[in-house]
Specification:
Blueprint (H helix, E strand, L loop, with lengths): L19 H11 L3 E5 L5 E6 H11 L25 H11 L3 E5 L5 E6 H10 L10 H12 L13
Antiparallel strand pairs: 1-2, 3-4
Helix pairs in contact: 3-5, 4-5
Length: 160
């Protein structure tokens, strides 16, 4: 099974100059916890999660409308391609400890988002199949790797 068979599309996105209030509004409207951030070149330049927004508001003590996405987003973006086998995406999520991956074309333009939730739903549907493409064990193993606590020195706090 390939990523393109399970990914969510189209991806809901935002821009680096958008404010966090608007980004949070998009997440609420579209029931998602991550937005790929698209630069002027049309390529993914970051991702912002609901947790990024919440922690930035707490740590900085500012209203969401006073914080820009570019000040809160993660710039180290881990992606996959639509033609990648599901196992490749699982390994990326496990090794990088992320629950969601932007799916991009060869130029870095966003095509969709692939998530741990997509894997879990597929495993649920395939529960009765003799040889499922995504098993409960696959999902459990990926979630365990993502959830492994990081050392405190690995966590970077945003500037005040």
């Amino acid at each position: 099974m390939l990523v393109e068979q399970l990914m969510n599309r189209p991806a809901v996105t935002c821009r680096p100059g958008d404010n966090c209030h608007d980004a949070a509004g998009l997440m609420w409207e579209h029931d998602c916890g991550v937005l790929p951030v698209i630069g002027d070149d049309g390529c993914v330049c970051g991702v912002i999660t609901d947790r990024d927004i919440c922690m930035a508001a707490y740590l900085r003590g500012l209203p969401l409308g006073d914080m820009q996405v570019c000040d809160v987003m993660a710039r180290d973006v881990f992606v996959c391609r639509p033609g990648d086998p599901i196992g490749v995406a699982e390994r990326i999520m496990s090794q990088c400890q992320v629950r969601r991956l932007p799916v991009v074309d060869t130029e870095g333009h966003i095509l969709g988002v692939f998530s741990l939730n997509d894997l879990a739903r597929e495993a649920e549907q395939e529960g009765g199949r003799r040889r499922p493409d995504v098993s409960d064990t696959d999902v459990t193993r990926t979630l365990a790797a993502i959830s492994h606590p990081r050392r405190q020195e690995q966590i970077e706090l945003p500037p005040p």
